[in-house]
C-alpha cells in the first residue's frame, strides 16, 4: 500500500477531560496504520506521498454506532411517520419487496453516503440478512393485505453451529478477513425468547468475541437493558441502541458492565422513543456514541446528528433552570462533549477504542480532512466548534479508510458516482411500481393487531 505523510494539519486531539485541541501536527501512515504523529516528521525514504493539510482540520473518521445502511435507498418514504407507521411502511412493508440485487444497490448507496460524509465505521444493524445462511427464520412478512408473519418460534441446533462457522471463516471471519466487514449479532428477539436460549446465545457470543447489538426502547416493548440486568445474563461486548431516560440503577449497571449505548437523537425525538440521554449517560461515565439510525428518514451525516444531540440537551438543561425561575449561567453541554461522542466515544460504545476513534500511533488509519475555506467554514477560529456547529458533508475533502483514500478533493474514488446514481434512480422507479398497489393504512392496522397495539393508538 502507498505511504502517506499528512503534513501540518490542525489535528483533533482529546485530553482525559474530553477537551479538544487542534495542534499543528504531521501524521505518517504506513500500510493501514498510523505509524507516527508529531511535528515536523520526515518522509523517511522514497515512495511516500506528502499531503499538505495546513489549511484543513484533520479528524479521526466519524463513527456511526447504529445505522440501518440499506434504508438509504428508501429515502422520503417515512418522513412524517411515527414508529408504528415506520414499521408498517418500511420494516414490515417496503422492505419485503427488495430482491438481492436491490439490496446490493441499497447497501452500496448507504455505505457510499456514509463515506462521503466522513463516516469511516458503521455498526450496521441489518434487518435483511441473506436467508440462504438460515441462521434464523426470515422475519419479513410472507404477504401484505392481508399481512401474514412467519413463525419466529422455531430454533434448530444447527443455527448456532452455522453462526459460529460464519464468525470464523471467510468472508466474514478468519485470517483472510481484512477487518472492513465483520460479523455481529443483532439480537432484539432475546426479550421474547426462552431465558435459557438467550443465555446460550449470549454465552456463545461472549466466548467467541462476537459483538452484540440490540434496540433498547421500553415503550416499544424492547426493554433490553432491563432484561439483561434482571436476568443476570452473560455479557459479551454489548451495544444498546437508544436507551432513553434510564434510571440511576440501570445507568450504574451500564457503567459497571461497560455496556455501550448509541443515541440517535434525530429519530429518538421524531419517533417518540423518549428523550435522548447521551449527555446524561456520558456525565455518568458510561460508554456513549451517536448514530444516524434511519437514513430513509433523516440526515445521513454526523454533523447534523451532533448538532441535534447538543441543542436538545441544552434545551433540556435550560428548561430545568426555567422551572426554578432561573437562567443558566453557562452551557453544561458543550461542543467538545458531542464531538467526543462522534469519534472516540463512538469507538468506546462499539468496543473498538483500541483500533479506532482517535489519531494515535498504532491505530487504524481512518482519517478525514475537512476544509476550512468553504462558505460555511471560513472565518472559524475554534476548530471544534466549526466541526459541530458549521460543517457540512460538502466540507469533507478527503477520507481515508484503513490507509486507503476513498474520497479526495471532494470526489468519491471507489465508485463511479454518476453511474451509480443513475442505477439507484432507475431501481427506485422499479421499486415504486412494485409496491404501488399496497394499502398502507390497512398494513398499519394489521400490524397493530398482530403486535397487540390497536388499543394504544390515538
From TrEMBL:
GO MF assignments: hydrolase activity, acting on carbon-nitrogen (but not peptide) bonds
Annotated source species: Talaromyces rugulosus
Superkingdom field: Eukaryota
InterPro entries named among the record's database cross-references: Amidohydro-rel, Metal-dep_hydrolase_composite, Metal_Hydrolase, MTA/SAH_deaminase
Key words of the record: Hydrolase
Protein name per its UniProtKB record: Amidohydrolase-related domain-containing protein
Keyword hit for Hydrolase: yes
Domain Amidohydrolase-related: 57-406
Coiled coil: none
Amino acid at each position: 500500500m502507498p505511504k502517506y505523510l499528512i503534513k501540518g494539519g490542525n489535528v483533533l486531539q482529546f485530553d482525559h477531560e474530553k477537551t479538544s485541541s487542534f495542534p499543528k501536527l504531521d501524521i505518517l501512515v504506513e500500510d493501514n496504520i498510523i505509524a507516527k504523529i508529531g511535528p515536523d516528521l520526515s518522509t523517511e525514504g522514497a515512495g511516500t506521498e506528502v499531503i499538505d493539510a495546513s489549511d484543513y482540520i484533520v479528524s479521526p473518521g466519524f463513527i456511526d454506532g447504529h445505522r440501518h445502511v440499506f434504508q438509504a435507498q428508501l429515502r422520503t418514504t417515512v418522513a412524517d411517520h411515527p414508529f408504528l407507521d415506520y414499521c408498517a411502511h418500511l420494516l414490515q412493508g417496503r422492505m419485503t419487496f427488495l430482491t438481492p440485487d436491490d439490496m446490493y444497490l441499497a447497501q452500496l448507496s448507504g455505505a457510499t453516503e456514509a463515506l462521503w460524509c466522513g463516516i469511516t465505521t458503521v455498526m450496521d444493524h441489518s434487518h435483511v440478512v441473506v436467508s440462504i445462511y438460515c441462521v434464523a427464520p426470515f422475519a419479513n412478512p410472507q404477504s401484505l393485505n392481508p399481512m401474514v408473519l412467519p413463525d419466529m418460534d422455531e430454533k434448530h441446533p444447527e443455527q448456532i453451529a452455522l453462526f459460529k462457522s460464519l464468525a470464523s471463516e471467510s468472508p466474514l471471519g478468519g485470517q483472510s478477513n481484512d477487518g472492513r466487514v465483520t460479523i455481529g449479532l443483532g439480537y432484539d428477539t432475546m426479550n421474547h425468547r426462552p431465558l435459557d436460549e438467550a443465555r446460550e446465545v449470549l454465552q456463545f457470543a461472549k466466548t467467541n468475541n462476537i459483538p452484540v447489538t440490540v434496540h433498547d426502547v421500553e415503550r416499544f416493548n424492547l426493554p433490553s437493558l432491563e432484561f439483561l440486568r434482571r436476568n443476570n445474563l452473560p455479557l459479551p461486548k454489548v451495544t444498546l441502541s437508544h436507551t432513553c431516560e434510564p434510571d440511576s440503577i440501570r445507568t450504574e449497571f451500564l457503567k459497571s458492565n461497560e455496556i455501550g449505548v448509541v443515541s440517535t437523537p434525530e429519530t429518538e425525538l421524531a419517533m417518540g422513543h423518549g428523550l435522548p440521554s447521551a449527555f446524561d449517560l456520558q456525565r455518568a461515565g458510561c460508554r456513549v456514541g451517536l448514530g444516524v439510525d434511519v437514513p430513509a428518514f433523516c440526515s445521513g451525516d454526523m454533523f447534523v446528528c451532533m448538532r441535534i444531540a447538543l441543542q436538545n440537551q441544552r434545551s433540556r438543561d435550560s428548561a430545568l433552570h426555567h422551572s426554578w425561575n432561573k437562567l443558566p449561567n453557562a452551557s453544561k453541554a458543550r461542543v467538545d462533549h458531542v464531538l467526543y461522542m462522534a469519534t472516540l466515544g463512538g469507538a468506546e460504545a462499539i468496543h473498538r477504542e483500541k483500533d479506532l476513534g482517535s489519531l494515535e500511533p498504532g491505530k487504524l488509519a481512518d482519517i478525514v480532512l475537512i476544509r476550512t475555506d468553504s462558505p460555511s467554514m471560513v472565518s472559524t477560529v475554534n476548530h471544534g466548534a466549526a466541526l459541530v456547529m458549521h460543517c457540512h458533508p460538502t466540507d469533507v475533502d478527503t477520507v481515508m479508510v484503513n490507509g486507503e483514500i476513498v474520497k479526495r478533493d471532494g470526489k468519491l474514488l471507489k465508485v463511479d458516482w454518476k453511474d451509480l446514481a443513475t442505477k439507484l434512480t432507475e431501481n427506485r422507479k422499479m421499486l415504486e411500481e412494485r409496491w404501488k398497489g399496497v394499502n398502507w393504512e390497512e398494513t398499519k392496522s394489521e400490524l397493530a393487531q398482530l403486535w397487540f397495539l390497536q388499543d394504544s393508538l390515538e
